[in-house]
Amino acid sequence: MGFSKQQHIILLLLGLLIFSIDLFRPFHPVWSNPCPASTNLTTQPTHLRIIEVIGAVKNPGIYVFHAPPTAEEVLQRAGGRTSEGCASLGQMDSPLKTGTRVEVGASEQKHDRFTISSMDPATKFVLGIPIPLNQADAAVLAMIPGISESLAHRIVLFRNTQGSFRSFNDVNRVKGVGPKKLERLSSYLSIE
């Protein structure tokens, strides 16, 4: 006795489902390694370093590293300098942290030819990098889930009148921010 047409369709769909799960398994955080080789709880999670490269490089963009890169390593990943890019980085061999922007200026420019700064706060938010609370404006803060436009304006007003936040506990003094809200917001924000 054979299968009916409906049963064939169901088996085909089931096969496609199993195939698609297996296809996307390497990209899923839990399915990619369901049985870790070691259950050592002292192992630190791997944090990716996200660096933006702009200016006189062959391939400007955002690059991801598994270990803190130096500026020279970042420039190599970006394809190196263009013909008009500056010739030397100087003594820029210290590791860069996540959310850093490396800008390579053209050699004929009179200002600094190589600049390391912080990424734009909106770019950081999109990439999942905590936003520096003491630098973000109200528009950027309002993008964060749990911060309304009015709360974002109160945070900026408080910061402008009372000074920079030194710790997350200082944010509790802003009207509308309590301990629970602050706990939810802390993964989106950093205090530098």
Indicate the topology.
Blueprint: H1 5-24, E1 49-55, E2 61-65, H2 71-77, E3 100-104, E4 114-118, H3 121-127, E5 131-132, H4 138-141, H5 149-162, H6 168-171, H7 179-185, E6 189-190
Parallel strand pairs: 1-3, 5-6
Antiparallel strand pairs: 1-2, 3-4
Kindly describe this structure.
The chain has 192 residues and is of the alpha/beta class. Among the domains are: 49-119, no CATH class; 130-190, DNA polymerase, domain 1 (Orthogonal Bundle). 33% of the residues lie in helices and 14% in strands. It has 7 helices and 6 strands, in the order αββαββαβααααβ. It has helices at residues 5-24, 71-77, 121-127, 138-141, 149-162, 168-171, 179-185; strands spanning 49-55, 61-65, 100-104, 114-118, 131-132, 189-190. The strands form 2 sheets. The chain has a 4-stranded mixed β-sheet, with helices on one face. Strands 5-6 form a two-stranded parallel ribbon. The chain is flat and about 80 Å long. The termini are far apart. The model is unreliable at 29-45 (pLDDT under 50).
